[in-house]
Amino acid sequence: MPPAALAQGTAPAVPPSTTAPAGAAAPASPAARQPSAAQAAQQERMRSCNATATSRHLTADARRSFMSECLAGRTPAASGHEPSAAQAAQQERMRSCNTTATSRQLAGTARRSFMTECLAGHGASTD
What we know:
Elements: H1 3-8, H2 30-33, H3 37-55, H4 60-71, H5 85-103, H6 108-119
């Protein structure tokens, strides 16, 4: 304490955090309880990756590896992942061939043969 404070009989101010009883927790402010947008996004990614790892029954090193990849964003989480470009192209080709086969009223072996040719890309999908 400075000599002037002793002479005047005043004690230095003590921060409020040190005046709380030893076992008492300081009340948290409402802003401290709400995660930031980045924290909320990370928590959601953790939930999603964890759910996917659980649904795939991954354990030990396989789970650890998957979680690392998933949290880094290199592996899509289960919910809402979009198909790759190749998958999307295949799905579109399937829709197109199916529509053409239906418009031609193909059934049974004729439809199966047409779909095989169409999906192989031999130009059979034109009407």
